[in-house]
Amino acid sequence: MNNKNIFNQIKRLGFLLVLIVLSLGLFAQNKKEKKIKLNFHIEITDTNGKVLSNTQVVVGEGETYLKSDKNGTVVFDANVADFLKFSLEGYEELVILADNMKGIKTVKLKLEKPFASDKDIIPLPFVNLLKRNITGSTIVINGSELEKYTGTDIRNAFTGLAAGMEVIEMNGSPGLNVIERYNGNSEKVNVLLRGRSPIYLVDGIPTDMTEMPLDPSEIESVSIVKDVVAKAMYGPVGADGIILIKTYHGKLNERTIKVNVEKGVSVVDRMPLWANGEEYALLNNLARVNSNLRDGNNIPLLYTQYAIGKYKVNDGYNMYY
Asked: Can you give the pTM of this predicted structure?
């Protein structure tokens, strides 16, 4: 290898080292900038200047939750890289980067359009539509409604929640059975939409509900599609109706934690007293007398005095008494 090639290699290595040093410097600077704290004192109003109290402010993907006071003001600290979310019932949600809020003292929220908010989103196969844009008939059941019904099969929780849906419990055996759908006589739960058996989609994937154990607390919403217009997008497969189950997913710029706490005390208020062998024999004879099973011909009672005496002894080794 001649001196010229050696010089070129050294030159390349030096160039790479310079790039690495510059990259580390930029990374460190960027990381330092993200930790810069900004202090905010913001007034929240509508577009007409009316102050909005109880407006929720989420800082840094759920690290801090705040609400504006009666004067519509809120005070908090945030990093320059944090996202700030302002939300109030009846108004459009506003999400903005903290770095872009420098110098801003007032945040104005716009009134949301009817049936056009996040809570009016209708999950459908392949697409989510707003309620104001739908012409077909689709029923959406919130996941919290399903938690009111405790059972081993999620299909039982659909009972009485939607018009045109019929839920029939064929037998009460617990658990799921992969072969139940092959034998109509042993099917545990039968769900019908206008007399037809619908297909099930869990997060857009066709699913056999006899094999899918779902906890109601995992379900965000259930969309029941039974209208011709709404079913058209799924073709002939969805002709009998569609039940679309959407499970919980993470939310952008927010941290959601759900906790269920149950507490109870069970008290036995009455302990049954069982009859022994002697008492059972005497009471059985008395019941036969009270029922006129012993007529004037002196039909013998079921248990004789000898048998009653043997039962009274309660001998565990006597295989007959």
From this structure: 0.60
